[in-house]
Write a structure and sequence with these properties.
single chain, mainly alpha, 0% strand, elongated
């Protein structure tokens, strides 16, 4: 189970990196009025850094078989999961909301739009997380739950 937890953790991280890349490329780091994101930057990067720290602790556990490291990885996963649920709760209304109104495309081919801007929509800006593929969000969450359960079962065994 310990190697299965490592594999699911790594695959979960890959999905998380894909979401992070979309979030950053679509303006998630911007702090301008009416643009950017509803996901607080400290929550996003706190989730990332804690998950990475937990993964390092788990890899060290696999190398040393120190139960203290296994418990450390499990304890670190708790705030990772909580931050993930916070982001999920903030993402769901964005996903369910109607897309910004789009007018008939009147933009010239040479017009450059800002990340997240809908061409022809008089500057309407969708939050960065609006562009997350649902399958990636769901897969990331399910794999995270599986990882947490596998780590818990390994620690308790």
């Amino acid at each position: 189970m310990d190697i299965a937890a490592l594999i699911t953790w790594i695959v979960t991280a890959l999905g998380g990196f894909a979401l992070l890349g979309i979030w950053i490329s679509r303006g998630g780091l911007r702090r301008e009025e009416g643009a950017g994101t509803r996901l607080p930057t400290p929550v996003v990067f706190g989730h990332l850094l804690l998950a990475a720290a937990g993964l390092v602790a788990w890899i060290l556990y696999l190398a040393t078989r120190s139960t203290g490291l296994a418990w450390t990885a499990l304890i670190i996963l708790v705030p990772v999961a909580l931050l993930g649920f916070v982001m999920l709760a903030r993402w769901i209304p964005i996903y369910r909301a109607p897309a910004p109104e789009t007018a008939a495309p009147t933009t010239a081919a040479s017009e450059i739009t800002a990340p997240g801007t809908v061409p022809g929509a008089s500057g309407a800006v969708a939050p960065a997380e609006r562009h997350f593929p649902v399958a990636v969000v769901v897969g990331h969450g399910l794999l995270a739950v599986i990882t947490l359960v596998l780590v818990l079962l390994t620690v308790l065994a």
